[in-house]
Amino acid sequence: MMTVSTEIELRPVPGPRGLPLLGNLPAFGKDPLSFFSSLRDEYGDAVTWSLGSRPALFVAHPAHIAELMAEVEHTFEPGDVGWTFAKVCGESILRSRGAQWRRKRAMVQPTVRPKQVRGYATTMVECAQQRGNGWREGGRIDVGREMERITQRIVSRTLFGNDLGARADVLGESLSAIEWEMGAEVRSLRLFLPPWVPSAARRRLLAELAVVDEEVGRLVRTRRQAMDRGEEREREDLLSRLLAARDGQGQRLSSKEVRDEAVTLWIAGNGTSTTALTWTWYLLARNPGARTKLTAELQRVLGDRSPSFEDYESLTYTRQVIKESLRLYPPAWVIPLRAKAGARLGGHAIRAGDAVWCSQWVTHRDPRWFTDPLAFRPERWDGESTANTSWQTWFPFGTGPRTCVGARFAQVETALVLATLARRWHLEVDPGEVVPQAVQLLQPSTPVRATVRAAAPPST
What are the beta bridge partners of residue 56? Predict the structure, then answer.
């Protein structure tokens, strides 16, 4: 077990007074980003508040966040974020606890290790190329929608190979609708509805989920039957690796467990990368100096060819652009946890059952850790960060035992997709500020529209 302790004492103070029964839910639901930012700015680094009748603690100091995340699976556990989340992800690695979580992580993590991600790099580049080939000088695009089509194709091929065919779009549309419902529930009174209470939103969710379960279930059954008959050819996709995985006792994942992991990997892989790439194009369009530096690096490293996995480490500035984008607009914007018996944080006892929240959005934009925090400056990641690296100041994929197993996949994917497209095209995003909306992920509240321009070579 990893243990992190801090000498910075945790001293919680009461936050804003809430309403009877609802607590601070109305303010949180209206604008979670402003709500959490105001807790830090107006009250401090440790603030008590309430989500409905549930007592909660918000922590913002990186030292406490590092300690908190290191204690997950020991004295803290991931919080349950609603009926919808449970229905969609089942008992996947995201929702498992204790021995079950350790078993599943040991079986799932090898499917996305660096060696496997290396094998997926060609698919990432090919999918970006295919979409980019359809762009034309002066053409108009919805950036988010274009990025979603690319990442959906990537996750479809890396997860299921080519087995979905034309059904990949159907599955993708259903999963996109499901992601929206998951985020909407967290910010509304639906979060407190008992599981047996019907609602229009739940009916919509179940209809989309039926499509997903039919498609994924069919693939799992077909592959498993072929494997049991010894007829399944060797494949490199994630589904085959999940089906072939064995735990320490030689047991494999059940068909339901494979379904849960496959759906979770799809949602995490597609939504996170779509959102990250959309915000990255938006930031590059608003910062022409950074776009010029990116173009210069792509010309120097790639010239007239497309990137490969071997180029990833050489694309230093490209990776800095992605890292800075993830700092300013982290797709996963909040982490809810729950205290177990004996929980302590910063020397302060936390009552078992209480929720403890931290937010990437708040900490990533804190002027104490990042100079000029609202500015897009990829150069801040050139060598030593301006942040205190002994604390948790940048954690878009979480940290500690529960770090996202697909973090490496997502970082390689976003960098290679960006490099593939930016080598040929510049996206001239329409003027005006795009406001982030905190749903399941940190998404633009309005479509990011752009005019496609041929990427001009850097001036000499």
Answer: 49, 355
